[in-house]
Structure formats: structure tokens, C-alpha cells
Amino acid sequence: MFKDTKNRDAAWTLVDWLSTPETQIKWYGLTSDLPAVQSAWDDQSLAKDAKLAKFGEALKTAKVPPTFPSFEQVIESFDNEIEKVAKQGLSGADAMKAAQSQADSIGTGR
């Protein structure tokens, strides 16, 4: 919430409502956007699909990405290597090794 937000109480009410498991589940049904609220993943509409449930499981250990200036460059190099796995048959181990090497050369910009 920005410091100078008008209608601050109404904005927090909206955030609270959007953050409820029920709203997250309904929103998923309308948009296919995966819920960010962990308890929403207990709903059978999500839990019964084994592949989809993997995303809910991953949410349990998810972390906020680091905040350093060159992070987007690191992510782009990672994405490029993953694309090589998907489209060119590069092994996952080789892709990770290349991505780590590129990340090391990019650095954190600090």
C-alpha cells in the first residue's frame, strides 16, 4: 500500500478479500491464475489434479526473489538454458551448470 493512498481502509478491505482462500479458488476458476494463499490448495478443485497440486506443494517452500540490480539478467540466462532443455535436448545438469556460470559472470551488481 502506498503511503499516500486514498481510501486506505477500502484498499485494505479489498486486499483482505482477495487474500481469502474462497476468493482465490473462485478467481482460479475464472482466470486459471494459481492461488497464492496456501490454504486454498486444500480445496478439491485444485488438490484432485496431481499435476496442478505440485504448484501448491512448491508454494510451501517458495521464496521471494533476491533484490539485486542484475537479477533480471540472471533470470534471462536461466530461462535461455531451460529453453535449450525443452527444445534442443540439453540435459538439465548441463543447463544448470551453464546457468550458474553465467550468473557468476553477471554477478549481483553490488
The main sheet comes to: none
Order of helices and strands: HHHHHH
Distance between the termini: 28 Å
User: How many E strands?
Assistant: 0
Structural class: mainly alpha
Radius of gyration from CA coordinates:
19 Å
Helicity, as a percent range: 55-70%
Uncertain residue segments: none
State which percent range the strand residues make up. Answer: under 5%
Number of DSSP helical runs = 6
- Overall shape: it is flat
Averaged pLDDT:
91
Report on the architecture of this protein:
The protein has helices at 8-18, 21-31, 44-47, 50-59, 71-88, 92-106. It starts with 7 loop residues before the first helix and ends with a helix. With 110 residues, the protein is mostly helical. It is flat and about 45 Å long. Helix 5 (71-88) runs antiparallel to helix 6 (92-106).
What labels would you give this structure?
110 residues, mainly alpha, 6 helices
Q: What is this entry, summarized?
A:
With 110 residues, the chain is mainly α. The chain has six helices and no strands.
List the helices and strands and how they pair.
Elements lengths: L7 H11 L2 H11 L12 H4 L2 H10 L11 H18 L3 H15 L4
Helix pairs in contact: 5-6
